[in-house]
Amino acid sequence: MAQKVFAGISVDVNDDGYMTDRSQWTKDIAKEIAKEEGIELTEKHYQVIEYLRERQAKGESLTIRSVGTSGFIDIKGFYQLFPGAPMKKAAKISGIPKPASCV
């Protein structure tokens, strides 16, 4: 298993760069991962991140559609926050595994 340093903290990551231990995640780590993805986090980003972390902790399937029906952001807004590959980027920044719905 590989390790990567974010915000001065060494974290376990898989070959795709996703954290493998969600308990190592912090907001400072999220900021650094987001910076690597070309994203500056706002409060709206953190709403999505918390939503994804909560749902993943419950074992729920994460999809773009489920985020779009969350009630606080629509699908278009999700793409604007995490351009290109919103679910992949949001999951990586959230410190959770890449969802099965991502190719």
Describe the structure.
The mean pLDDT is 93. With 103 residues, this protein is mainly alpha-helical. A hairpin with a 2-residue loop joins strand 1 (2-6) and strand 2. It has 5 helices and 2 strands, in the order ββααααα. The protein has one domain (2-94). Helix content is 45%, strand content 10%. A two-stranded antiparallel ribbon has the order 1-2.
What is the general shape? globular
Describe the sheet with the most strands.
Answer: 2 strands, antiparallel
Task: Please indicate the percent range of residues in DSSP E strands (runs of 2 or more).
Answer: 5-15%
Task: Count the domains.
Answer: 1
Round the mean pLDDT to the nearest integer and report it. 93
- Low-confidence parts, pLDDT < 50 over ≥5 residues? none
What's the SSE blueprint?
Layout: E1 2-6, E2 9-13, H1 27-36, H2 43-57, H3 64-68, H4 75-81, H5 86-94
Antiparallel strand pairs: 1-2
